[in-house]
Amino acid sequence: MPSTIERQFVETRSGRISYLQTAKTGPVALFVHGVIVNSHLWRHQLAALAGLRRCIAIDLMGHGDTIIDPQQPVSFEAQADMLREFIGALGIDQIDLVANDSGTGVAQIFAARYPECLRTLTLTNGDVQDNWPPVNFAGFLDMVKAGGLPQTLQRMLDDKSFFRGPDAMEGAYENSATVGDDTIEAYIRPHLASPERTNDLVRFILAFDNAQTVRIEQKLRELNVPTLVVWGTGDIFFGKEWSDFLATTLAGPVSQVEMPNARLLFPEERADELNSALRAFWTRGA
């Protein structure tokens, strides 16, 4: 990771929130990841876009180096409220919000609850309306419910080919074979730092409930925030129809960009394309 990207922590009511940032001044872009991964997902965006924004990538509750109380709620709604606490603690008034996977669901709830905090909104492949947890995630969810997550995470660390394989994260990538060991370590090791940290992730996954995004539809229809929807068309979890749903639901204005054949975690696999889309969107908005 470039030396210009720093790991920082801030105390909020929800917990001690971990984040990466590129600078301490300028308009802020806040990047929100999804399940299993963490702020490391956005390393290429932080490195490439630092000249345009003060880029901040947060670790959601139950992920990365964020520390929370065992009783702290970790639902999407609780995560959205934490984001508001987070930017408030840093003295930030408005953000360009960018999200992926579960973070896309969290970002929509944040937008519905705190529209005054948004300068722009960028949503990529992720949880929308009632299409989550996705059907292809059902096996993983069953494993978590059965108590198998600690062993599965440990296997991902001990056997990196398992992480890259069909029984784990292969479906999230166009070419999972290219995922480096260092990236797997960055994503998985924090979940095994303690039994409490592992259980935070368990609680996050078991709190999945698409009623949280269904009930904000009307507020999304009233959300007059410039929005960019960037969607990988090869995603086995979240099809292009959900990009179209966002484009026709959000009041906008909304721009759509398609990435042919890209899968869920394209922010790291096809970072240059996403960076170009963000750069053009933010410049146009400015």
Write a compact overview of the structure shown.
40% of the residues lie in helices and 18% in strands.
Give the key terms.
single chain, 286 residues, alpha/beta, Rossmann fold, 8-stranded mixed sheet, 8 strands, 40% helix, 18% strand, globular
- What is the typical, i.e. mean, pLDDT? 96
Order of helix and strand elements from N to C terminus: EEEHEHEHEHHHHHHHEHEHH
Gross CATH architecture: 3-Layer(aba) Sandwich
Query: Could you give the count of β-strands?
Result: 8
CATH class annotation:
Alpha Beta
Radius of gyration: 17 Å
CATH topology: Rossmann fold
The percent range for helix content is 25-40%
Q: Quickly count the helices.
A: 13
State the shape: globular
Which structural class should the secondary elements be placed in? alpha/beta
Q: Let me know the CATH homologous superfamily.
A: Alpha/Beta hydrolase fold, catalytic domain
First-residue to last-residue Cα separation? 29 Å
Order of adjacent strands in the largest pleated sheet: 1-2-4-3-5-6-7-8
Low-confidence stretches: none
Strand content: 15-25%
**Tell me about the biggest sheet?**
8 strands, mixed
Any overview of this molecule?
The protein has about 290 residues and is of the alpha/beta class. It has one domain: Rossmann fold (3-Layer(aba) Sandwich). Helices cover about 40% and strands about 20% of the residues. The protein has 13 helices and eight strands. The chain has helices at about 45-50, 75-90, 100-115, 140-145, 150-160, 160-165, 180-190, 195-205, 210-215, 215-220, 240-250, 265-270, 270-285, and strands at about 5-10, 15-20, 30, 55-60, 95-100, 120-125, 225-230, 255-260. An eight-stranded mixed beta sheet has the order 1-2-4-3-5-6-7-8, sandwiched between helices. Helix 2 packs across helix 3 (about 100-115). The chain is globular. The two termini are about 30 Å apart. The mean pLDDT is about 95.
